[in-house]
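User: For a benchmark we're assembling, each entry needs the component sequences followed by a predicted structure for the full assembly. Here are entry 17's components. Please fill in the structure.
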Amino acid sequence: MIRQTLLGLAAAIAPVIAFAHTDSEGTTPADGTTVSDVSEISMRFDDPMRIISVTLTSPDGDVEIERETGMEPAREFRATPLEELAPGSYRFDWRGMASDGHPMQGSFSFTVSE
Amino acid sequence: MTGLAPIDGLAVLAILAKAIGYGAALVAMGGVLFSTVFATRADAPALRTARQLAVGAALVGLAVLALRFGIRAARISGMGFEGAADPMMLGFVWDSPLGTAAIWRGAGDLAILAILVPRIGHWIALGGSVAVAISFTQVGHALGEPRAALAVLLVLHLLAAAFWVGALAPLRRTAFLPIGADLLHHFGKIAVFGVAVLVIAGTALAYLLSGSLAALFGTAYGLGLLLKVGVVSALLGLAALNKVRLVPALRAGKPGTADALRRSISLEMLAVALILLATAMITTVTTPPINL
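Assistant: Structure for entry 17:
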């Protein structure tokens, strides 16, 4: 019985070929910070990431931004707000695909001070 | 929960499609392996069942492959289901490792259909089974280092699992037949080696991908793996029961054994389905500790 259990445990620790894991290594503005102005929004990854969709939202709705980085895989993504961001809280959401093909998504938030 | 991706409707759909895809791949490969290994020992109906299952599973595999392309495109697009048919998104998916894997999987499934052609078709189907196994080495963590070792271990693991899974339905069918007891006994003897390959390759892969055992605890990946461990333990228990108790009883002609054996094999099938679902969940929404 013990042998069976051990065999079972060993077999079950089976290959888990999961998704990859191009973590966001840092963002500008940093997540959860309060800043006085935002001239650029950027994210850095430890492996090339194809960023496909991005949205910046404030309590008043979506905020227009211009992408500097296209849809090609890149380690750094950059975008700029089309207009100066009014004081308030903002949330940046992104979706994309890691270099191993896995769908990835993430978000970060920041506050623009009065 | 550490290492757990957001689970939305599309992620659930992706998990279900992936689990069905895993099942289809294992049954397709396994059907070919069964009709190869037991070509002379199994009766004609069992061999026909194995071939039909292989062909049916290969066709399901091809359909699921197309479906998964759509789901992947939708998931990366941020547009919801509309993204599934977006040419640009589909192009991104095609350019990704999933595209390479799809070529191997698609070619493998098509080659498996050749099992319907006598003699030469069987060898083509065997090649197809290997191609389907190789397709799994083209995506995800199999692309990490040491890549060659990961690929070899994964192919061995999948072929061993397929041999087992693909044999369930034909063996279940033969339990009532006079030839059944000997066939099941012979399967049990080979399966011991198959399980050994499964265990050794699986453990080695887990070691390479996890980094450490301690890292498994407290992560979504670890919990998913524990769930899988539980079901695999039950599956191995059933297999052991069949080999040690039921098959010898069947050979001895004990009444009612065939029914018990068929029930046990049906439970094995259920366990396999749960294992594939757990694996699809782990590989879709969790990150192995080594990558956290």
